[in-house]
Amino acid sequence: MKFETKVIHAGIEPDPQTGAVMTPIYQTSTYKQDAPNVHKGYEYARTQNPTRDALENNLAALENGYGGICFGSGLAAMDAIIKTLKSGDEVLSTNDLYGGSYRLLRAIYQKMGIQSNFVDMRNPENVRDNINENTKLIWVETPTNPMLQVVDIEEICKIGKEAGVKVVVDNTFATPYLQQPLNLGADMVLHSATKYLGGHSDVIHGAIVCKGKEDYESLKFMQNASGAVPGPLDCFLILRGIKTLHLRVQRACENAEKVAKFLKNHPKVEKVYYPGFSDHPGHEIAKKQMKHFGGMVSFDLGGDHNRDCNKVLEKTHFFILAESLGGVESLIGHPASMTHGSIPKEERLKSGLTDSLIRLSVGVENSDDLIADLSNALDAL
Ligand SMILES: *Cc1c(COP(=O)(O)O)cnc(C)c1O
Question: Of ligand 1's atoms, which has the minimum distance to the CA of residue 194?
Fold first, then answer.
């Protein structure tokens, strides 16, 4: 099956009992047994749920993995992976990391004895140089949030393999439509399905897809043993969202390219971060490992203060001021005070995340309307 067929059919069969074409929402906590331990493969809904099974199988197909495992949020999925480590183990992570991922590593796992080191992975040698005998996991995010840095997944995976360290790629920004890390050598892919996979800003959900059976089994065990599972309605919403993933992401990419070009030519904008520009330092790598350059664009008004930002953020109409990304509607945000508020300023500035940076999640509206909206807001400066 090609990708566009997989999103609709992979892992999904019409309901055997009724023929329902859409996967039913199995809203049950438990299942009838004919005799103790004689059942149809379903005992208790933390452990198994048919709606969740369909989604997990679908995700495994989209990422070309052995198996998918779903969680109540992206961070719950990440938590399950980090929890497979033990005290004394270390994580080597991308430095321009999603704020919540950074907080989980720093505020929760550090005090449990799992140390994380954050390096600039745009230069893969920084990964090689920072691996030590305790490093058990390399955590990659690409393109990064919100600076849209691009990390060469294949290179990092080679280094990981040589050192015997597993590589996880947070594929939330790119989605499997644009980028398939398991095909490039990664061991696991993580999604905040809240974003593009769900695609309609109406559900919080997370998922992992493992390339190998061993990782899959240990995370499947964790899913049941720790219990951060999603409900069946949430799984249904993600399944439904995925059916149009290719259409939505394609349009978002096309709109983002037009918006980025508009911003680049605007006199009030100092810098635009968009991997689709040929002068973006990660452009060639993005071209190699992604189908398009994604729906995210960040831009800096200059001056490292948020006075002007607020004017723009309060003035857009179609770009709604809100956290999150990846929905059909366009969103605008101020990373320094919103999504990345939990990262200390000195840390933020290392990757260029100033107080004057604005992040856009470009949706699937008409691009002329989106550009007019931004143009109007920038006129307020
Ligand atoms: C949102 C996000 C997460 C966290 O996911 P939740 O579903 O909000 O828990 C992790 N990584 C990235 C890149 C994200 O954008």
Answer: 7
Q: Whose CA is nearest to atom 8 of ligand 1?
A: 74
Residue 373 is among the residues annotated as catalytic for this protein: no
pLDDT digits (tens, 9 = 90+) for 216-239: 999 999 999 999 999 999 999 999
Ligand 1 pocket at CB < 6 A: 73-75, 98, 100-101, 141, 145, 170, 172-173, 192, 194-195, 204, 206
User: Per-residue DSSP letters for 97-145?
Assistant: --HHHHHIIIIIIGGGT-EEEEE-TTSTHHHHHH--TTEEEEEEESS-T
The 10s digit of each residue's pLDDT in 184-199 is 999 999 999 999 999 9
Domain count, the chain: 2
CA 49 to centroid of ligand 1, rounded, Å: 24
Size of the chain in residues: 381
Last residue of a domain, one of 178, 211, 242: 242
- C-alpha of residue 14 to centroid of ligand 1, in Å: 31
The whole-number pLDDT of residue 306 equals: 81
Query: Residue 298: pLDDT band by 50, 70, 90 thresholds?
Result: very high
Whether residue 116 sits in one domain with residue 60? yes
In this structure, which residue's CA is closest to atom 4 in ligand 1?
74
CATH code of the domain in which 174 resides: 3.40.640.10
Dist. CA 361 → ligand 1 center (Å): 14
Residues 19 and 166 in one domain: yes
Same domain for 222 and 310: no
Determine which one of 52, 106, 122, 195 is catalytic: 195
**CB-based burial, 255-292: b 16+ in 10 Å, e otherwise:** bbbebbbbbeebeebeebbbbbbeebebbebbeebbbb
Domain with 289, as residue range(s), is 245-379
pLDDT, tens digit, 9 for 90 and up, residues 344-373: 898 888 888 999 999 999 999 999 999 999
Domain stops at, among 242, 277, 295: 242
Ligand 1 centroid – CA 198 distance (Å): 12
342, pLDDT greater than 80: no
